[in-house]
Design a protein that fits this description.
Length: 240
Amino acid sequence: MTNNSKWLTRNVFAIGMLSLFSDMGHELTTAVLPLFLATFGGGAMALGTIEGFSDAASSLVKLWMSYYSDRIGKRKPILIVGYLLTAMMGTLAFVTAWWQILMIRVIAWIGRGARGPVRDALLSESVSAEAHGRAFGFEGAMDTIGAILGPLIALLLLSLMPLQKIFLIAFIPGAITIAIVVFILKDIPRVAQPGLRMMASLQALPRRFWRYVLSVGVFGLGNFAHTLLVLHSVTLLTPQ
């Protein structure tokens, strides 16, 4: 742990950079995915299927991986695998059918789901409780910057290279995230809990937490994949 005056620790900075480059990479590919899918004749149904299965896989893995990380007492190995799987989005450059996009996206989003809660747990363990707001604020800011830079880079590259090569560019931020996890991020020693059980852990959560989950879930029912808006825009703006 660190004192309250020193909140930008090595891990906080590393996790911030992870969010920056990871979000840059996957937003870069997501921005051009609807346009790329259209080249295979895939429409809204194909895109919705890809997004739906990917988000479902990510959500299920999030629930299990956060429990598994506490049970084994380690964060870094899971993060390495998670960021490695997410970096596979660059392999979209080699697909020849929309179902291959589905497979790659699901695998990448499994990695994204695996690393998310584990990354947040490590971030909270890397600073004192009084500095959690600043640490998570820094990580969120880096994530937002990455979400802006990714589509911006994709937009600039559209006029310079074919879509397939844009996906290859996504390997660069993906490789950077893996290097950060392996060489910069430090695991925080913690005691393994081999006897930990998921159902018991869920039952131990306070009632106010479940009220919060219910409230968020209600709003989540109205959520939809933003890539569908991109696909609709492409359809409207493309000359017949």
